[in-house]
Amino acid sequence: MTFSINGSHDAREVSQTTWNANSSAALLGGFQVPFGGGTLFPAQLGVGTHYYVCTNHISMGMKGTIIVQKYNWCCRECSSSKHFYFSKSFTW
Ligand SMILES: [Cu+2]
Asked: How far does residue 79's CA lie from ligand 1's centre (Å)?
């Protein structure tokens, strides 16, 4: 998952409580996309909901979520168990 953002924005993973409070305390072991953008890989995104904020603009409500689900089947019947589905939302 690639964040295409300019140098005034970053993306830091936070807890759900922190996200709800529009705060920016980093989640232990969470991801940090630097100012200017970057790419997150599946190994950095476990199954579940990831909450993230822009540390520069969270006071204005700039934040989003990434939901990762794992599927145990594949459309190509390759029997791999390493397929992931990502969905995301973002608000400002
Ligand atoms: Cu921002």
From this structure: 40
